[in-house]
C-alpha cells in the first residue's frame, strides 16, 4: 500500500511535465532545408497571404524589398528600416512577443526569429491555425535562403530571386577586388561586459573575409562567443571594429590599450545599422568595409 | 556597597511591574542572598544592575553613586556579575575564557600584563578549575562550565561579586565548595550578592537574606528571621516545615507532600 | 596561532598573488614582471602585467580581505557561524542600485556609487525594520529584518528587469556574478581606503567582539556597552561589504567560509581572527580569480561562480563533521 501510493504520486508529478516538454520540442534539424523552417517544422505554403506580421528587422526589410509591404500589418518595435516601415503598427518585442497583440491584427502569416525565447509564441500561433515560420538569420547563406523562402511564402519569388542575385553580385565583386590584397586581422567586439566577439558563424565574419580581412575568432563556429581581454591581446589583431562611442571608450581605457591596435589608433568605426544583423544592404556593407580596410580597392 | 532604593522595573509591553519598589543593600564583608519563587523578579534585579533593562523609578547605587553615572568599564571593575545564562557560539580554551574577565581592566590596546595573568591564575585556582586550563569549553560538563564562569568573575576582581544561580548544575560537593568560596570572599571584604534556589545552603552561609514575592520584598533579615514556615509557605505556596539542621543548627526547610497528594 | 603559522599565511598570500600575476593566457616571464614593476611597459607581457593583471590581483586582495574581515566580525557579534557580510541587506540593496543604474543608463562611472548607495540604504532599512519590531539590536531580529529587506530587493530587481531591454538584463546579470576584471586604479584606491579604515576599526573592536560572543547579558556584566558595540560592528562590516560590492559586484561565500577556515586552524581571539580572515580571504579571492581565468579559455568564469563552487564542497565537508 505504502509503495503503491508513492509510485502513483511520483508518476503524477513527473509525467505531465515530460509530456509538455515532448510536445513542444519537435525533432530539431541541424540544417533546415527548403521544406522545414529553423525549428525543424514542416512548412505549409499558404495561399497568397494578405496580412503578414514580421517580428524581426531582417525579415521585415526583406518583405519591403520584395514589394510585400502593402500586406505587412504588424512588425516588431525594433524593425525601423527602412523609414517607411514605421507606419506599420508595432505589435511588441521581437523576443517573447505577446501572442494576444499579434492575434489582434488578424494575421495569416507570421515570421519569427528562431530562438528558444520565441518557442512558446510559435507553438501558440500555430495552434491558433496561423502559418508561422521561424528563421535563423546569422550567416549570409541563411540570409539568402531566408529571402528565397519569404519570397515563396508571399508569392513574390521573382522579386526575392532578384534581391538575392543583386546582393550576391555585389559580394562577389568586392571579394574579387580584395582577393589579391594582404588580409589584415580584425577583432569586432559586440559587447564589453563580458567581452563578446563575433564568431565564424556570424555574417560579419563572412563580410570580413569578403572585404579582404580575417576575423581573429573565425575558428569559433558559433555566431558569437565571450572572450577574455588577454586572449585578444595575445591574438593581436591589426584592426578593431567598433561604433563611434565604443571607440572613444576604448581609447580612454587603460585596459583596452593593452591591445596594440587600440594603442596605435587602428580602430575602424562603422555604423551599427549594417553590423548588427544581415540585411538587404549586405552588399553595401561589404563595399563599406572594403573601403575602410583597403581604401580605393573597390570602385 | 550595592544599594537598591525603591526600584521599579517594568518590561516593555508587559501588563505588570516585574519589580515594584524593591529596596535592599549588599554591604562589604557580607554575603547577601536573594531567594524566592520563579518569576518573582530575582534575575530582573541583576539585569537592572548591569543596565540590560531600564529602571522606571527608584535608584541603584554602587558606593553611593548611581549606576547610570558610572562609566561601564569602571562599574565592571568594581562589580563582577555572573549571569544566569550565557551563550557558547565559538568555544575556546578555559584559560582564554577566564582571561576574558580582565576585559574591564585592559587599556585601549587590550594587551594583558603580568597582573592580569596573575589574577587569572589565582581565580582559576580559587574556583578549582586550574586543572581544566587547556580544555575546550564545549567539552566541559555543565558543572565544570559553571565553575569556570565563576573563575572568570573572580578574575574580574573588584569589590563586589553578584551571581545569579551559580550552583544550578553542581553536585553537592562542588556546591558546598562554591558556597564556602563565596563565604570566604565575603569575609575577606567583598560584597557578595547571590541569587539562589538553595534555601538551606543560603540559610547556612548567608549573613543577610531577602525573600522576593511577585516583585516585592516579602521578608528580609538574617536567616533565622526569614526562614519561618508561615512566611515561606505563603510565598512558595507549598506546605513545608522549618527545622534546625543537625550539623550546625542553621534553619533548614523540609517540604511536605502536596495537598492534592496523600498524607 | 604561532608565529610560524602567521608567516606561512602571509607567504601563501604572496605566492598566490605572484602566481596570479604571472599565469594566464599570455605567458609572463620573470623579467617581464620585473620590468612591469619598474614601470617599463615596452614589451607586451610587461604591459599586460601592469594594465591587466596587477589591477585585478590588487582588487582581488582587497575584496577578499574586506569580505573575510566583515564575515568574521559579523559571525562573532551575531554569535552565528552562518552570518556573512551580505546578510543585512547589502547584496540585495547593492544589486537594486546597480540594476537601476544599468537599466536607466546612468553612466558607467555612476554604477559603483549606485551600488554603494543601494547597499547602505538597505542596511538602514534593515535596522529600521528591526527597531520597529521593538528589538534593541537583538541579532536574531536584525537577521530576519535583513532577510525581509533582501526579499524586497529581489522583487524590485525582478520588476525593473522584466521591462528592461535585453542588453540591460545581460549587463545586470554579469554585474551580479561578480568580477575583478574591470578594476581602475581609482576604484582600487577608494576601496583600499575603506578597507584600511573599516578593517582597522574592526580589529580595534576585536576584544569587544570576543565579549559579545558570550551573549548580551554576560557581555554587559563584563562592562561592555552592548548596543553601541553591536552597532559599531554592524556599521563597519556593512561599509566594508558595500565598498567591495561597489568595486567588484557580488562575490559570495568568501565572508561565510573564510572565518571558518581560520577558526579551524585554531584561531579564537577575534583580533587575530580578523587579521587571519583578511589574509585568508585575500588568498581565496586571488586564487578564485586565477581559476576563473584559466579554466575555460578564451572566456572567463565569473568570480562569484568560482567562489560559490569552492564554497559548496566546503560546507558539505563541514556538515559531515557536524553529523
Description:
- Helices cover 41% and strands 14% of the residues of chain A.
- Chain A contains eleven helices and eleven strands.
- In chain A, the strands form three sheets. A four-stranded parallel β-sheet of chain A has the order 2-1-3-4, sandwiched between helices. Chain A has a four-stranded parallel β-sheet with strand order 8-5-10-11. Chain A has a three-stranded antiparallel β-sheet with strand order 6-7-9.
- In chain A, α4 links the parallel β3 (109-113) and β4 (131-135).
- In chain A, α6 runs parallel beside α11.
- The model of chain A is unreliable at 24-32 (pLDDT under 50).
- In chain B, the strands form three sheets. In chain B, strands 6-7-8-3-9-10 form a six-stranded mixed β-sheet, sandwiched between helices. A four-stranded antiparallel β-sheet of chain B has the order 2-1-4-5. In chain B, strands 11-12 form a two-stranded antiparallel ribbon.
- In chain B, α4 (114-126) packs across α5 (142-156).
- With 263 residues, chain B is an alpha/beta fold.
- Chain C is mostly helical.
- Chain C contains 14 helices and no strands.
- Chain C has helices spanning 3-22, 30-38, 44-77, 90-103, 110-132, 139-162, 166-176, 185-204, 206-212, 216-221, 226-248, 254-264, 270-294, 303-322.
- In chain C, α3 packs parallel to α8 and α4 (90-103) packs antiparallel against α7.
- Chains in contact: A-C, B-C.
- Chain A binds chain C through residues 95, 191, 193-194, 225-231, 233-234, 254-255, 257-258, 260, and chain C through 24-26, 44, 47-48, 51-52, 55, 166-167, 170-171, 174-175, 181-182, 184-185, 293, 297-300.
Largest chain interface and its two residue counts?
B-C, 32 and 27 residues
- The overall pLDDT of chain C, averaged over residues, is 89
First and last CA, distance of chain C? 27 Å
Taken in chain order, the helices and strands of chain C follow as HHHHHHHHHHHHHH
Using only C-alpha atoms, the radius of gyration of chain C works out to 20 Å
Shape call of chain A: globular
Q: Percent of residues of chain A in beta strands?
A: 5-15%
Number of strands of chain A: 11
Question: What sequence of helices (H) and strands (E) makes up the elements of chain A?
Answer: HEHEHEHEHHEEEHEEHEHHEH
**Unreliable runs of chain C:** none
Q: End-to-end span of chain A in angstroms? A: 84 Å
